[in-house]
Amino acid sequence: MTELSIVIVFDNKTLKSDLVPSWGFACVVRFAGKTILFDTGADGAILLDNMKKLNINPEDIEVVALSHAHWDHANGLGSFLELNSNVTVYLPQSFPQSYKESVMHSGAVAKEIHRAEELLSGMFTTGEMSGIIEEQALAFKTSRGTVVITGCAHPGIVEIVQAAKKITADSIYLALGGFHFPKPEVVSSFRKMGVQKAAPCHCSGDEAIDFFREAYGDDYIGIGVGKEITIG
Fold this sequence. Notes:
Layout: E1 4-10, E2 26-31, E3 34-38, H1 44-53, E4 63-65, H2 71-74, H3 77-83, E5 88-92, H4 97-105, E6 109-113, E7 117-120, E8 123-125, E9 138-142, E10 145-150, H5 157-168, E11 172-178, H6 185-193, E12 197-201, H7 206-216, E13 228-231
Parallel strand pairs: 3-4, 4-5, 5-6, 10-11, 11-12
Antiparallel strand pairs: 1-2, 1-13, 2-3, 7-8, 8-9, 9-10
């Protein structure tokens, strides 16, 4: 039985020639009987086209979570809501009021996130963490440990992983997403925290991706549009 699956639907790179890469990030997570869209990329047309080619029906999505208010993570939501507004959108409290109102006007439910909490059974938000911009990440408890998904990690990828580990009171199996140009010493911090697998992408930068690939070897996971990760 699959506990958790992740499909990358928006990223700077693509793993399949028929899928479109673009600056930004979004993934679809299936967990505990729910289908969740985490971030929406920079362009709704690209997001929806990639989803269609990956046989992901927007109407199957029940929950949307946005990491932070930057355009490359939040601009695709409007196009998505035109197809499916029967969703709950979890977004940091710091999002502009005009954005929150546009979500509500679409017919979706907007729920503001401030503190760490359990959103669904086994799925947690780190709450708004301070950085260049306030940002939330998601943490999923699985039998292999916690899976952390981050948008850009503006508050710091090490700080986000530490927060997720504290919230779930579990080891970290996988950290995936934008790591925001981390320094090489972040790898040793990951090792000290017991992060088993690393999957940097989007704003992590090619240099960081290279040093994570070298340090983690078989436990490094390359990311691009079309990548599917299954746990269970």
